Amino acid sequence: MATLNAMKLAFAQLRDAKQERDKRRGYSIDKKRVVIAYAVELVIVAASLWGARLFAKMYGHDDVIQMQMMMLAPIGYAVIEFCRVPLAISARAHSSAFVRTVAILGVVCAAGVTVKSMSQLGQIMFQPRLYDVVHSKEKLQQAQDAQATVKKQIADADAQVRGRRTELDTLEQRAKSGAAQIAGLPKAQCAPAIWYKHGRQYKGQWCKTDSRIATLRDNLSKTTTDWNDAKQLWERAVAERNGLSRAEADHDVADAWVNYREALLHSQLHSFTGMLFGIGPTEVTDGQINRFLRLFVFLPAIFVAFASTFIAFTAVHHLKPELVPFEPEGTDYLLNPFYTKVVDDAIDRLHAKHKADAEKIGETA
Question: Alpha-carbon torsion 152, 158, 161, 162, what sign?
Fold first, then answer.
C-alpha cells in the first residue's frame, strides 16, 4: 500500500512538473500525436526501403555491387524522412522566427524526398499490370504481322495463279490458231510419177505441198510444248496456293485480341485513364497514361509526404497565459504603499515650496 501511494505521489509530482514546464515555455506537446507521426514515418521508410530493394533486385541484373549501389540513395532518403517530425514541431514551437522559417523550409525539402519515394512506389504498383498490357499488345502486333504476311503470300499466290492461267490460255489460243491456220491451207496436190533407177522402173506418186505447212507445224509443235510446260507451272502454282490458309493466322489474331482485352480489363490504370478522357481502354495512348499518372500517383505521393507533418503540427498546443485572480481584500496591501509614497512626496514638495517662499519674503524685508 505504501509503495502504491509512493508511486501515485511520484506520478502526481511528475505531472505537476510537466504542467509547470509547459506553463513556462507557453506550449504543450501531445506525445500521442508525435508517436503516431513517427509511426507513419516508420511505415513510409519501411515501404520505401522495401520498394527500393525490389527495384534494385529487378534491375540490378543479379549484380550484388550494382544492387548495393542502388540502395545507397534510398537509405539516405530514409534518414531524411525521420527529420520531418522534429522540424514540424520546431516550426510550431520555436521562439525564433528565423528558426521557424528554416524549419518550414526543411519540412518542404524533406517532403520533396518523400514525394519521390512514394511516386516510385506508386509506379511500381502499376508495373505488373502494365507489363501484361505491353506484352499482350506485343503478341497482338506479332499475330497481326503474321496475318499480314499470310495475306500477302496468298495475294502473291493468287496473282501467280492468275498469271500462269493467263499464260496457259494464251498458249492454248495460239495452238488453236496454229491448228486452224494449218487446216486452212490448201491440201497437197499429188500426181502419178514414173522414174528409173539402176535400170529398173519405179512407179509412185509425187505430191506438191504448201511451203508454209512445215513452218506452221514447227510453230504448233513448239507452242504445244510451251503449253505443256505452262500447264505444269500453273498446276504447281495452284497447289502452292491451295497450301496457303488464313485460318490459323486469323485464329492467332483473335486469341491475341482476347488476351489483350483481358489485360486491359485487369489494368485499372487504362480503365481510369479511359474514363478520364472519355475513350475506351483500347484507345488509351501512352501519353494519356503519363498525364493520368500525375493525378493518380504524384498527387497521392504529395498527400503521403505531408501526412505525418500535419500530425506533428497539430501535436503542439500553445497555452494562453493564466491571469492572477484579483481579491478585493488585497487592495489595501497592494495600493497603500504606493498611495502613501505619493502623498508623502506631495507634502514634502509643498513644505519645500512654502519654505522657499518664506525665505524669499524674509530676504526682501
Answer: negative
Q: Is 121 helix (H, G, I), strand (E, B) or coil?
A: helix
Closest CA to 107 of 32, 22, 37: 37
Of 157, 141, 149, the closest CA to residue 248 belongs to: 149
Check the CA dihedral 252-258-259-264 and report its sign: positive
pLDDT in tens, 150-176: 899 889 988 988 888 888 888 788 777
User: What is residue 267's predicted lDDT score, i.e. its pLDDT?
Assistant: 79
**End-of-domain residue from the set 243, 261, 280:** 243
Domain final residue, candidates 214, 243, 272: 243
Domain that holds residue 351: 335-364
Q: Cα(302)–Cα(296) distance, rounded to whole angstroms?
A: 11
Percent residues over pLDDT 90 in the chain: 1
Q: What confidence tens digit (pLDDT) does each residue in 92-139 have?
A: 888 788 888 898 898 888 888 888 888 888 777 777 777 788 888 889
Q: Is residue 232 in some structural domain?
A: yes
